[in-house]
Amino acid sequence: MKIAALDFDGTLYHRREDGSHSFNQADLEAIRAWRDAGHMALIATGRSRSALAFAMPDTAAPDTATNATQPPLTVDYRVLSNGGSAASGDGAELIYAYPIDTAILEAAIDRFADVEGVAVFGTTIGPVDGVFTNTTDASDEFTAHFKEMTKADIDEHTFAVVPIWVPDDDALRAEVVTWAEQFGNVTVAQNQDYVDIMAAGRNKGTGIAELLAHIGIDRSDVELYTFGDSWNDLEMHRIADRSHAFPHSPDEVQAAVDEVVETVAEILSDYA
């Protein structure tokens, strides 16, 4: 069996010069052909269940880069929240979930509520994600649909990730990483401008492995091809038979993969 594990943001879903986001038509066609050939495709993303659904509508949407109408991206499974949960291909059925200790979320709110240039979010295994504090004076498409929440709302939801957004300040982002790593019961991963905090042991690699176990597929029976552009993709790249990053990926990520490609479409058909 052949499986393509595909990161979402920066791999399939791209920010355009006008600030909008869209897919490359060729990538969608390549994934569709891959599945039509009998192979499996799954999304492995830091996004939550609802955040991925927000960016993957069920109906065709216009490609703002080409003005062409894009059919919906269809996959077999979704590994979400950097391996903190997984769902069926349409996102309707939750397969597993590893909630994070909400004390971590509360600590992040306390620590960064008054720090300029930082936003603290909480993403859940359910239909809504939350924004708790934001002193960045900016907004991001990734969190545009999030609901404003306070500490009083925390007990009403099951959180999988505490994403902390630090745009355009590498030094401050490094401070956030150091702060998060003080907790012994978490995994910390960087994804572009975000520092993601998950339950201990959760990453895209463990998430994919657990999904295969849940659906009854032995890893030894799989040829696994991974595509991902950022640091939070490293763990799934490590378990791949063939791994891929992109020219815009950080140097560390490019050095860790088997091949750097311009797009998913340029190489996926070669493996079919």
UniProtKB/TrEMBL annotation:
Q: Name one Pfam family in it.
A: Hydrolase_3
The cross-references to InterPro entries, in alphabetical order and at most eight, read: HAD-like_sf, HAD-SF_hydro_IIB, HAD_sf
| One term under GO cellular component | cytosol
Q: Name one GO molecular function term.
A: phosphatase activity
Give the protein's recorded name.
Pyridoxal phosphate (PLP) phosphatase
Q: What is the lineage of its organism?
A: Bacteria, Bacillati, Actinomycetota, Actinomycetes, Mycobacteriales
